[in-house]
Amino acid sequence: MASSTSHLTPIDDSIRTSDLFNTPDADVVIRSSDNVDFYLHKKNLECATGGFPPAETPSNLKDVVHLTETANILEMLFSCIYPRPFPSLEELDFDTFMLLVEAAEKYQFFGMICACRLHMKEILYPTDPDFSTNFTLKLDLHAKRIRLLHFAIRHDVRDLIEELRVILVNVPLSDMAEILPPHIYMPWPLSGTETTRET
C-alpha cells in the first residue's frame, strides 16, 4: 500500500468512505477532518490503543466520531489495528511523518508509535554519503533534528531527548535556550565554543 495515498469511495458530494476500512460489521464510525468515514471495530481500537476511542463512545453507526486529522493520516494509523502490513514510513515526506507521529502519540496507537520511533533513527542518522558534503542537506537535517527535539520535549520522550542532547552538543546553548524548558536546559551540555552558561 502506498502510504501517502488514501483509498476512498464517493458517498455523496461531501462525505466519502475509505475502501480499506469499510467493513459491514463495524460498530464505530470515525470521520476525518476532510470528511472521510472509517468503519472500524471498537474492540480492535481498544486493544491497540491507550483508551481510544473513549469508553463512552457509542457502538452506533449513526453516532460518528469526528477527529481533527486528515484521511491519509488516519488511514495509516488504523492500518496498525488490523492484521495487515504497516504503511511504508520511508515514503513519507517529513511534514507528513510528523503529523503521523503527533497523531499516534495523541491517540496512543502503540504499534505506530514504535514504528515511528524506529523511523526517527533513520532520520537522525542518514546513510546518504551526500550529507557529509552537501550544505543544504546538512541544514535540512539540522532543522529536522530540532523539530524532533520539540516533539520529544512536548511528549516527554526521554530517550529521544538524551539522544538529541548528544547529536546537538555543538549547537550554541544560546540557540537552544528558547527550545529547552528549564529542567532540560540546565543539564544541557555547553557547546565547544562556550565556556559559561547564561543564567
Automatic annotation (TrEMBL):
Protein's UniProt name:
BTB domain-containing protein
Q: Could you tell me which species this protein originates from? A: Lentinula guzmanii
Q: Which SUPFAM superfamilies match?
A: POZ domain (SSF54695)
